[in-house]
Specification:
About 30% of the residues lie in helices and about 15% in strands. With about 325 residues, the protein is of the alpha/beta class. Strand 7, helix 8 and strand 8 form a beta-alpha-beta unit. The longest helix has 14 residues.
Length: about 325
């Protein structure tokens, strides 16, 4: 699993006592924020993992909201997108906030000295780090499938980045101790929303997997395993879809576990999944101690187990088979 540290808006206008948002008191409200973020940066440096700095630059006029497309698959169905305000550009302080070339737009000095020349930097005009920045394309080009988010503020740009990262089909981690807000309540509400819909919230970088382990089932980072019936699937796969459609049609509870085939290495080729299905193919249904590895066989199994009406129409006498004589 290739993970990058995404550092959001660690600029003077947000953090400096003389910054335009000094009244938000991000560092005062979160006294360990600076040291926690610095420790996260050191952790990623030690592991030679990429660090990406996201900087705000406020436009002079408000730009219209933009949302990433909702991917297909049950994982993304009914998950709330950003509201119109957070899907739009920064606005309200455009004459003084993060103006190009200004002191306020520069990184806060204690973080500037931690930045290295090889670090990627993206400048955004929207709350989301993914809107009109090329960030998603960059991550894909570097085979980065996981983002670990830190910065300010929890209920604005951090929430927007986590939301859009999820809809860009990335695995999302948010370091709760490395995220600042202007109040404890705003921090809590944002973190709860992220944890409910978009990713995992952890309190230390040590809790982020460094790689998909042999003993870990791919996809269970996102799945809340609540029953013994699990369907391993690939997004965009018609065989997977037909099984999902049948399970949904008859309201049969199950836990969907998505496996990625565009990641390197492919999650379908992991040792953990091979122990479930030696062919390393999807869909694969695990129902208690029963494992079925072919979509039509899964449909027949569900039909018989639950005494359901046949999915395929029953052929009438004289239809199909040999020509009537």
């Amino acid at each position: 699993m290739t993970a990058a540290l995404l550092l959001i808006d660690l600029q003077n206008d947000f953090l400096s006592p003389t910054g335009a948002l000094s009244h938000a008191n991000f560092l005062a409200e979160n006294p360990n924020l600076q040291s926690n973020i610095s420790a996260a940066i050191s952790h990623f440096r030690a592991q030679n993992r990429p660090i990406i700095w996201i900087r705000s630059q406020y436009p002079r006029t408000k730009l219209p909201p933009i949302w990433p497309p909702r991917p297909l698959g049950l994982r993304y169905a009914n998950v709330p997108i950003l509201d119109e305000r957070l899907a739009s550009s920064h606005y309200g302080h455009m004459n003084i906030m993060c103006a190009p070339g200004s002191y306020g737009a520069e990184l806060y000095p204690d973080f500037e000295k931690l930045k290295e020349d090889d670090d990627a930097v993206f400048v955004k005009q929207y709350y989301s780090a993914f809107t009109h920045t090329g960030l998603a394309t960059y991550l894909q080009s570097k085979d980065i499938v996981t983002v670990v988010i830190a910065g300010v503020s929890a209920n604005h740009c951090v929430l927007a980045a986590a939301t859009d990262a999820f809809f860009h089909e990335l695995d999302v981690f948010v370091l709760s101790a490395c995220v600042g807000a202007s109040s404890e309540n705003l921090h809590r509400l944002a973190i709860e929303k992220i944890a409910s819909h978009y990713g995992r919230v952890v309190d230390a970088v040590s809790k982020i997997p460094t790689a998909a382990s042999d003993t870990e089932i791919p996809g269970t980072l996102q799945a809340n395993i609540s029953n013994d019936r699990k369907l391993f699937y690939v997004n965009g796969s018609i065989p997977s879809w037909r099984v999902m459609m049948m399970l949904s049609e008859y309201n049969i509870p199950y836990t969907p576990i998505r496996l990625k085939v565009m990641s390197k290495p492919k999650e379908t080729r992991s040792a953990a999944f091979a122990r479930i299905n030696a062919r390393c193919k999807t869909p694969t249904l695990v129902d208690g101690n029963i494992t079925i590895t072919e979509s039509m066989a899964i449909l027949q199994y569900i039909e018989r187990k639950y005494a359901l009406p046949p999915v395929a129409p029953v052929a009438q006498q004289g239809q199909g088979g040999e020509e009537e004589k």
